[in-house]
Specification:
The protein has 158 residues and is an alpha/beta fold. The chain has one domain: D-tyrosyl-trna(Tyr) Deacylase, Chain: A, CATH 3.50.80.10. Helices cover 25% and strands 35% of the residues. The protein has 4 helices and 8 strands. The strands form 2 sheets. Strands 1, 2, 3, 6, 7 and 8 form a 6-stranded mixed β-sheet that branches. Helix 2 links the parallel strand 6 and strand 7. Helix 1 packs parallel to helix 2. The radius of gyration is 16 Å and the shape is globular.
Length: 158
């Protein structure tokens, strides 16, 4: 799984002009599910993201987690994070999990976050979504569950 985290003051996702998910101070998480990902990938990312110390303390040091600041999370599925751009000018998405599998793991990730946080929002899997966000910092971090779980990627295996 690939996650792009953006620390936000607020974020909202809309489908057909209607807001379907939102959060206040916290994180916007764009989540891509790869072929071969499983529940352990979702658990590893959720635990790391929720406890990642990227919010400022009273000394303006990034020393507090989402839990510490009672932050919120908005999670949006995004298969394009698995794009391969090695050949040609059009990316391919062969590394992305099949939609049914990806949706199950996306929902599982969201459920894990909901267990820990006071407020979570989510997009609509597979929908054409528009995201409005007010970034904070900006602080943007890319995470890969393969790194957290020390799994070898296909290119490392070759």
């Amino acid at each position: 799984m690939i996650a792009v985290l953006q620390r936000v003051k607020r974020a909202a996702v809309s489908v057909d002009g209607e807001v379907v998910g939102a959060c206040g101070k916290g994180l916007l998480v764009l989540l891509g599910v790869a072929k071969g990902d499983g529940e352990e990938d979702a658990r590893a990312l959720a635990e790391k993201i929720i406890n990642l110390r990227i919010f400022e303390d009273e000394n303006e040091k990034m020393n507090l987690s989402l839990l510490d600041v009672h932050g919120e999370m908005l999670t949006v599925s995004n298969f394009t994070l698995l794009a391969s751009y090695k050949k040609g000018k059009r990316p391919d998405y062969f590394a992305a999990a099949a939609p049914d599998e990806a949706n199950c793991l996306y929902e599982y990730f969201c459920e894990l976050a909901e267990r820990e946080l006071s407020h979570t929002g989510r997009g609509v899997f597979g929908a054409d979504m528009q995201i409005e966000t007010v970034c904070d910092g900006p602080v943007t971090i890319v995470m890969d569950s393969n790194v957290l779980l020390k799994k070898k990627t296909e290119t490392e295996k070759a």
